[in-house]
Amino acid sequence: MKVSLTVNERPVEADLPANTLLSDLIRGHLGLTGTHVGCDTSQCGACTVHLNGRAVKSCTILAAQAQGAAVTTIEGIGAPGNLHPMQAAFQDAHGLQCGFCTPGMIMAAIDLVQNAGPLDETKVREGLEGNLCRCTGYHNIVKAVLSAAERL
Amino acid sequence: MSDTGIGKSVKRREDIRFITGQGRYTDDITQPDQTMAVFLRSPHPRARIVSIDASAALEIPGVVGVYTGKDLSADKIGDIPCGWLVKSADGTDMLVASRPPLAVEWVNFVGETYGIVVAETLAAARAGAEAVVTEFEDLKAVATLADALGGPQIHANVPDNLCFHWELGDGAQTDAAFAAAAHVTTLELTNNRLIPNAMEPRAAVGIYDRSTEEFTLYTTSQNPHLERLILSAFVNLAPEHKLRVISPDVGGGFGSKIFVYPEETAVAWAAKQVGRPVKWTADRSEAFLSDAHGRDHITTAELAMDKDGVFLGFRVRTRANLGAYLSTFASSVPTYLYGTLLAGQYRTPAIHVAVDGVYTNTAPVDAYRGAGRPEATYVIERIVETAARELGVDPAELRRRNFIRPDQFPYQTPVALIYDTGDYEASLDKALKLVDYAGFPERRKASEARGKKRGIGLSCYIEACGLAPSQLAIQLGAGVGLYESGEVRVNPTASVTVFTGSHSHGQGHETTFAQIVSDRLGIPFENVEIVHGDTGRVEFGLGTYGSRSVAVGGSALMKATDKIIVKGKRIAAHMLDAKPEDVDFEEGIFAVRATNRKLTFGEVAFAAYVPANFPEDLEPGLSEKSFYDPKNFTFPAGTHIAEVEIDPETGVVTVAKFVAVDDFGEVINPMIVEGQVHGGIAQGIGQALLEHGVYDGMGQLVTGSFMDYCMPRADDLPNFIVDTTVTACTHNPLGVKGCGEAGAIGSPPAIINAVTDALGIRDIAMPASPERVWRAAQGL
Amino acid sequence: MYEFDYHHPDSVAAAIALRAGAADGSYLAGGMTLLPTLKQRLASPSDLIDLAGVTGLTGIEVTADRVTIGAMTRHAEVAASEQIKGSIPALAFLASQIGDTQVRNRGTLGGSVANSDPSADYPAAVIGLGATLQTDHRTIAAEDYFQDLFQTALEEGELIRSIAFPIPRRAAYRKFPNPASRYAVVGVFVAQFAAGVRVGVTGAGPCAFRPAEFEAALNQRLDPAALDDVVIDHDRFNSDMHASAEYRGNLLRVMARRAVADLLAQPA
Questions:
Q1: Chain C residues with CB-CB distance to A45 below 8 A
Q2: Chain C: which residues have CB within 8 Å of chain A?
Q3: Do A45 and C102 touch (CB under 8 A)?
């Protein structure tokens, strides 16, 4: 079936099997491999992207469901030399190690800062409930998000 | 000192690609004309394969090939070996169960691979796998450690499922210590089975080039050279010079990606069969079933003391679950990485340990963050805490009475190791201060006023990192050496490309190693590039595990860098018309002592490649390598203190405070070290409170997804208070000890000591889940 | 996922017709349960009928005595709705406790209630508030709706349009989440109406229910302590590796007590 949407503000039209996941479209068809898939039960959050400005798990959305939507991936928020403040905060606070959960974590954190109201440590920890990290123990992720919240 | 030198918290350069989505993990690699693979996996914990009919699968559009264990055997593909031969106490070799990459006749755990389906698309491969008709003869399985001895015999060559009965220490001397004891503390302990769950699932892309007969295997490995060695020497996939293993960005390992697995083996082999690249990426469900699990011990420990609580003897009996087959280093984990650590930080004069390694019909068990050392620390620190309570002595005080004192190093333990250095009381004191030990009774009162129970628990751990030396390890059964290689290649324009046999899958080598080399050479950090993870670019290496990267890999780079300086001095001496021994090198400048004649590092580098009138004995070029084989392990140690608050109505345990004071020796990048500690503590708290790999009585994995296997999340954890003390390692050039595993080693007993303290009970099984804690709190 | 045909109707009538015409059709709401099920190849519907574009299924309407929420309204919208916070704050709070941020940004009220997972949160409020479900062709009272494990009063192809929640004087929700999945091990919704107290429970049994003994005790005395001596028969409660039936029984009492305390902390 035909799907049209924008990904990182670029119009995308694709003819896909109906059972294509948004994550497959992003990774496989568009080659935007910054969005990762870390589980098959919609728990880990590595695949988090923004759909019309809100964080969603792209492994649990059909590409077809994103018809007409604006999708933003990690590649769409900043680039080397022009980092998004959340990206910069993750590096500054050492909020990542292996980097696998990081894109999803950053996308979830941006949603959190934009939509969750005033943040404190507890709120950040609760707000990142949908993202698993195995490396950092979250300590520096929390630090990064709080610091980015001040910058944003 | 520059702000990017040794000891500085330099921001990680690799982060830029990770935070912008430009990381390149194995699943991100797509080859032209690539096919996709799906594995046939046993649904049975133990069964005989009666027949496999792939005819319907081969009819499915897009299916390119279906291969089984018989196809691999016919092509003389060998078993996946275990790399460490452990001998039983009677001198006999451990009993090794044959493990073909794809099972031929017997399957012995749920998820074991017995076939591979290759297709144009993943969907076609899945459909193909579902269309394969396999007839199994289902057999009664050994599902748990408790059932292993005396259960059905899993492997024809292994009576009682006993792989080895290993012992260490002096049994008679230990018995004598117990006979003389004024007090004996006994504890039965279970070390719960864990599933590593690196966030990146394992993956592989196999490529075969018909023109050169070369294989290229991209895979999620912590040690690509070891992978290549095993696939060549034992599995017979290809000669070593015809096999290139590339381990690109790897999303965490924690031990689980050290090992050679059936899947990457079959993927590489299948690439040759279908004449096209073959790619496989595990989904998380497959990872749960087939990644090597960790821990899974049951232990009886007895500690003998005199009337003052001075330790006289320690006796430990452990049964260790090895799973259905011996994974790559499985046999070393509950033996040489466990029994040798049982002295802990204490002067216990007599120690004896006996370990039964047993097979069960479960996924193979192998090294997981800490590997043996968390199990040892758990046994020691739980029993020491329990002994203190029995004796009515403050747990910190009992430990002090028994610590090895700073003036006793080097210290020979009764279980084979020689600790080079340490100051255990220093880290204990600092940790007690940071946690405000004196203020605990007040905090407990405040918790009680709110209807909560509060407890505090200590853990004074020691670990052994940077497994070494090779000679000893090989004597003890290791199939590989334990050195590391490093090459420092100075380019003509004075930028430096560094090749290391270590591998980073989150540790930050690209930053840390560049700090070491740039600091040593006095050149800008930006001018040093670190290359790792590719057997086609790096000469050799043993990879990253056991917190060895900086201690062994970093030391190799130091030695190679020192050779660069020696060569540089020769070149500078020639150019400046001086003797090499009169040339000093400092901060990137070669200078003839007591003169104003000098050359920059860049000038020397350029001259090395544009060698005008070099004498005959001075070769052009400026590139050096080193193989560094350490003389001894390193011994990081420290004190972790946990303070927990328990809601007795629900059994929920909240970690109110967690303090870790570690002695890692010298530190290259404090920021990265702290991050390693945070992550290790999180995994340790996960083990103590949340995580449990559970098989049911039939041998089916109950915790097969994140829906049931409880991973620590941000709101399960507190901020951690971490600090360090320093006694420099005495036998490596950097004075470093290693920091990757300490958090996971020290923290579980601290947590359980705190939980049992809060509840006023002797023991609680890990994970101290809400229901378990509630039952204990209610006295049920 | 197996193959299926995907449909994107714009009206309830069209959705129902597509469902009726499909060999084995399934509605797709937020997909937070259905899509993971399909990914695991545990179901193979012939057709998915996406309700996201169907008009009239979203929105929040508050009148003097009830809050009516369109079936396709996402959890995040309910959690953030000032209207709901002003009328039934406990319902907004419940929505804020479902899954995680990403799930709340996709998951819908109708999808959750139609699926009737025994550990979903919304059913506790549906039954605790005595809500009325408006389907494409009838209304169903909450008491009649939840029947058994994943079994509801919905007929084949019947579609929930909206759910109307009576506004109580005060209400509160307490949940004990499964430490791994974060679904409710036990969730208790307590609501005080002029006519008395209602209690809705999720997680403990095969489907949401009202514990009559709790309601009786709380109607005698609206106080957490009123529940202390109520006998809980946990024999038919769910039991799994995370929580035995006995432990669920305990959590039921503890969560109920805490919900009552939360309720009493609100102005009368």
A1: 100, 102
A2: 1-6, 8, 28, 31-32, 35-36, 38-40, 48, 50, 52, 76, 80, 99-103, 105-106, 181-182
A3: yes
What is the least distance, in Å, from the CA of C219 to any CA of chain A? 35
Given a cut of 80, whether residue B1 has pLDDT beyond it is: no
d(Cα B516, Cα B559) in Å, to the nearest integer? 11
Instruction: Write out the H or E segment, with its range, that includes residue B26.
Output: none
Domains of chain B: 31-139+201-290 (3.90.1170.50), 297-467+632-778 (3.30.365.10), 483-628 (3.30.365.10)
d(CA B143, CA B360): 6
A41 touches chain C (CB under 8 A): yes
Taking alpha carbons only, the member of C138, C135, C268, C144 closest to residue C209 is C144
Q: Which DSSP state fits B194?
A: B
Residue B478: predicted pLDDT: 87
Chosen domain end from A11, A42, A77: A77
Say yes or no for a CB contact (<8 Å) between B708 and C241: yes
Number of structural domains chain A divides into: 2
Q: Give tens-digit pLDDT for C136-191.
A: 999 999 999 999 999 999 999 999 999 999 999 999 999 999 999 999 999 999 99
Q: Do B506 and A99 touch (CB under 8 A)?
A: yes
Distance of CA C155 to the CA centre of its chain: 18
Which CATH code fits C5-50? 3.30.43.10
Domain that holds residue A10: 2-77
Q: What tens digit of pLDDT does each residue of B116-158 get?
A: 999 999 999 999 999 999 999 999 999 999 889 888 999 999 9
B248-269 as b/e, with b when 16 or more CB fall inside 10 Å? bbbbbbbbbbbbbbbbbbbbbb
- The stretches of A14-92 forming alpha helices (DSSP H) are 22-24, 74-77, 85-92
Lowest mean pLDDT among B396-410, B474-488, C31-45: B474-488
One-letter amino acid for residue B471 of the chain: Q
Distance (Å) from the alpha carbon of B123 to chain C's nearest alpha carbon: 8
Q: Please, which chains are in contact with A (at least 3 CB pairs closer than 8 A)?
A: B, C
CATH at A111: 1.10.150.120
Domain borders along chain C are 5-50, 60-264
Architecture of the domain made up of C60-264: 2-Layer Sandwich (3.30)
Q: Are A56 and A95 contained in the same domain?
A: no
What is the per-residue pLDDT for B146? 87
CA distance A117 to chain B (A): 18
